[in-house]
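Fold this sequence, please.
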Amino acid sequence: MAVKGELFLGLDVGTQGTKALLVDADKRAVVARASFAYGLIEGLPPGAAEQHPHTWIEAIVAVVGQVFRRREGAKRRLAAIAVSGQQHGCVLLDARGSVLRPAKLWCDTSTAAEARELSERLGRRVPAGFTASKVLWTKRREPELWRHVARVMLPHDYVNFALTGEHAAECGDASGTGWFDAEARAYDSFALDAIDARLCRCIAPLAAPDAIVGTVSIEAAERFGLPRGVPVACGSGDNMLSAFGAGAVEPGIGVLSLGTSATISAPSSSYIADPAGLVAPFSDATGQWLPLLCVMNATGVLEELRAAFGMDHARLTELARAVEPGARGVLFAPYLVGERVPDLPNARGVGLDGLAPGSFAPGVLYRAALEGVALNLAWGLERMRALGLELGTLRVAGGAAKNELWLEILANALDARIERLEEAETAALGAALQAAWAVRRARGEKSDPRGLARLLVRRKGEVLRPRAELVRTYRHARLRYTTLVSTRFNLPR
């Protein structure tokens, strides 16, 4: 039987910080929110990107404290928790449950050689960002440490473990490991053996998308300041729960997430495979599939320009708006940290094309950067559409969704309607929605993710629609862009 006034806590453990939303599903409202920022470990070799899992635990302690400060009554109403986590990270634990080393993250490209080796061995593309290459890298480069590994987890699995003491996994996040068969929604035993014969014993069994994987333990209650015994839903990867929190749980509506990386994903009732492996055939957080495109270079490119010019993004955007579409002929292929689509993990220095006097003006370069990221996304979206995904509407998420100029550029470069959302923290909202779905199903109530999304996901502002003349402008620019990159890296056309 439904309980009125229940609250659901969604935690989003990301690369740049952790965010929390406390949601009252009956009132269709976020009643509290919090965030805690952090960064990567500094001083690592080129290509390496790591965080210590203890950082995430400290962040969760902080955001839970913020959410429930002066809300002791809210703790008594807390009905369930779910966790969204940055995908692909590799968390290694020993037999006692202690973390053995910092986690190598999705944006770590130091494992490119292992990714190439696995791709050849398995006969399918395994991106350097996926967990499989990080496990093989550890086995090869840190063999003494690898001997002590008893459990291999993804970031959100580790947070669930910290909350409940249970080791569980689920299909959405697991589909970004490299050892998962997304079509069958099961682990790929051949891939597991190709990495290490005992890896199959180090990973957790898969839970259903509406499963409760445990309850807040005595230790976790003391550590996090949460009520003991609160159900913890299985959670998922941030892309899966961002789609849930954006209401992209039905065909025709996709999600464009603009963060350190940028992704485009869309729900599908059937499995969609990309022969080149550039569009990941992920499972989603509701029992469907979520074909996803990820580019590594997004807001980080803009941040580099902000730092170089010593101006804030608002001022640079103002200057860029005064520059006509096409950035006065300047084309910026922004592969500063390698790229996943196209598959160029070690790419550097593609840089600028079409330079002329005046090209180094801040507004010109900032516009060229906005357009460069958009054109790279458009290149990938064209591939997604060719695979049969109908994507005429994209709901935008992430902090950069506030940049009106960039959204206008994206609407025309992607030839898609762009919708903004009232709640920008879509992954945390998706986690809260999944928590509500799971606990209600566990009680035998009728509940489905689509109904919850329709109730709690709200659009904001006007829809940004593509303009025919600008669509043509950016289509020509994309042809020039793809020619530049393909020629520079000898890619097939």
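The radius of gyration is 22 Å. Residues 7-240 form a domain with the Nucleotidyltransferase; domain 5 fold (CATH 3.30.420.40).
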